[in-house]
Amino acid sequence: MKSCCAILILLAAASASAAPRPFEVRDLATLDRLSDQVLSPDGRHAAIQIRQTDFEANRGVNGIWTVTTDGRGTPRRLTDQALGATTPRWSPDGRWLYFLAAKDGVSQLWRMPAEGGEATQLSVLPLDVGGYKLSPDGRRVALSLEVFVDCATLACTRERLDQAEKSKGSGRVYEQLFIRHWDTWSDGRRSQLFVAEFGADGKLAGEPRRLSRGIDNDVPSKPFGDDSEYAFSPDGATVYFGARNAEGSSEAWSTNFDLYAASVDGSAAPRNLTTANPAWDAYPLPSRDGKTLYYLAMKRPGFEADRFGIRALDLETGALREIAADWDRSASALKESFDGRTLYTAADDRGRHPLFAIDAASGKVRQLVEDGTVAGFDVGARQLLIAHQTLQRPSDLFVAPLKGGTLRPVARFNAERLAGLAVGQSEFFTFKGWGNEEVQGYVVKPVDFDPARKYPVAFIIHGGPQGAMSDGWSYRWNPQTYAGQGFAVVTINFHGSTGYGQAFTDSISGDWGGKPLEDLKLGWQAALDRYAFLDGDRACALGASYGGYMINWIAGNWNAPWKCLVNHDGVFDTRSMGYVTEELWFTEWENGGTAFAKPDHYERFNPVNHVGKWRVPMLVVQGEKDYRVPVDQGISTFTALQRRGIPSQLLYFPDENHWVLKPQNSVKWHDTVNAWLKRWTGAR
Predict the structure, then answer these.
(1) Rounded to whole angstroms, what are the CA distances from 254 to 248, 597, 616?
(2) pTM to 2 decimal places
(3) Which of 105, 238, 280, 650 is buried most deeply by CB count within 10 Å?
(4) Distances from the Cα of 202 to the Cαs of 40, 112, 138, 330, in angstroms?
(5) Which helix (H) or strand (E) holds 604?
(6) Could you read off the pLDDT of 102-113 as tens digits, one per residue?
(7) How confident is the model at residue 12 (pLDDT cuts 50, 70, 90)?
(8) Alpha-carbon gap, residue 421 to 18, rounded angstroms
(9) pLDDT at 138 over 50
(10) Which of 526, 534, 551 is nearest to 620 (CA)?
(11) Spatial CB neighbours of 255, under 8 Å, sequence gap ≥ 6
């Protein structure tokens, strides 16, 4: 189906009135970013969180907007810009919009009339509200708050934090992992789940009750958990939530998440519903009739990239069944149709991330959106609300019939900016990779493409490694920033990538430098054979995370084609990585055990053992607050290059984590990378 045609035609018509200029990083950094789209109960309006960029202040500014879903209205900002509002949610009757915003530096729950008006602060808690979910009847709310689990009150946690801030000593004593996670050192607090009632005035009444009491783990999970990890039963009497079922340091090497049920009155300890599965259970979704709990589950303990299959738990009998067991894709968080017959989910699928409808009874799967990436969606009684993006444009808001079909535009938040910009066209291709198996990649043509010319190439290697470069819009590794600089882009979804079946994803574990490297070699040659405009003598390879690891591996094992390399937060020493990273389950699964039990596995594809063969100029990028691939890996890479006398640069960010998030840092990153590519390829 041609679900993007209407929007592309409109964009093309708008841009025809003026000569467009090439898209570049300053455009990327200042685009409005859509997220958290939700339909009103009557389906006539949508609320969206929009992040706008204050470039001078070097930060994003969030706000809540609404728009009619008939496509005839103009988007309207509902919240004052100074509030920095996030996480919009409609009241069950559609009269109110709830959201989170900071008051005196502390995130609290607010609401305002859906038609606009004055916002009212509903909570006055001493701690940040991290997330929330309204009960189906709107009488109460579930809240996530970070607390010391041995504190009986929120005030106790506040007092301890204040005392620590006043203390002149900075030392902390740790007795177990995690000591740090993603980009934050542990201060002993846990994210815990609470519930509170609304009073007659709409404000929270009394101290919230902790539902996750007795669970010394995070609800929702860190670092990226959200309100999709907990849900009210239809009658509002029970809250279902997910939490890691691990004690002490084992949290750092366990992926055993379980689902729990807790009564909202807090009268009993949470009840574990999934003890039989030692792997990951997540994203609870009670059916609308209250009889079934749908959720996602993996089967292999310790493996974070296992297939998420769909489960249905009969809450009365305890009977458990898998839905669509033969569907070889990994589902994301589910939503249910109003009649209870259909489940909706998005999943990676051959270089795209479409939306699927799954019959809850038979497990029959239908693809509803074929092209691009569904970045988010909501389900109404009569239509779907979809945030959709492609390699050519960022997310826009659309509606579609419940059975799928043409996407109808609701709002185009970046239309004016994009109208004057030119982007490169993309094309997928396939070739025979490792083991003569089909592998997919894509090429993006430079802006102002001339088929008679040859262009320098940016060869991008994705991270994960269980991930994929897809037909979607990225604010970190966006091929259009290279196409706008006159480069062609080539990328390969090598063995280990997602969206091609679980066996394909599994094939990289224990073989980081094997099958994937073979695919990259064969894919590079296939692209050169197929696309005459690629200049194989002026090409640089780039990658981050696993992609950065592969850059280091390529430097010693396949450096002949490359004029330069770019390594962002890449692993330099796989054995050291087994001790210094925080989520140990990852390195231990990928290498078949711990670094002390299986040292030979860690050395098999260890870049540090091949530094003597390095010769290609390399730019190294490293964030100080990256605890996934910590700073020692980047510094070691740069030291090796300098000691070998190889032309090299280190771009160091003291305030960034595994990603580069601040607008001005993003511009610095792209300017430095582009200058490095141009320096060694001779591109203008």
Answers:
(1) 11, 17, 39
(2) 0.95
(3) 280
(4) 19, 11, 10, 40
(5) helix 599-604
(6) 988 999 999 999
(7) very low
(8) 9
(9) yes
(10) 551
(11) 244, 279, 280, 298, 301, 302, 303, 304, 585
The average confidence (pLDDT) of the chain is 96
The SS3 of residue 112 is strand
| CA–CA separation, 60 and 70 (whole Å) | 29
The rounded distance, in Å, linking the Cα atoms of 465 and 546 is 5
Q: Residue 119 and residue 111: Cα distance in Å, rounded?
A: 6
Task: Tokens 């783990």: give the residue.
Answer: 217
Which residues are annotated as catalytic?
Answer: 545, 626, 658
Task: Tell me the residue ranges of DSSP E strands in 523-647.
Answer: 534-544, 564-568, 618-623
CB atoms within 10 A of CB 162: 11
The angle, 0 to 180 degrees and rounded to 10, between the axes of the packed helices 546-557 and 515-530 is: 80
**Strand, coil or helix: what is 193?**
strand
Q: What are phi and psi of 421, to 5 degrees?
A: -120, 145
Residue 313 to residues 48, 270, 328, Cα–Cα distance (Å): 32, 17, 21
Contact 283, 229 (CB under 8 A): yes
Q: Strand 455-461 to strand 59-68: parallel, antiparallel, or no bridges (unpaired)?
A: unpaired
pLDDT reported for residue 18: 59
Report the relative pairing of strands 488-493 and 534-544 from DSSP bridges: unpaired
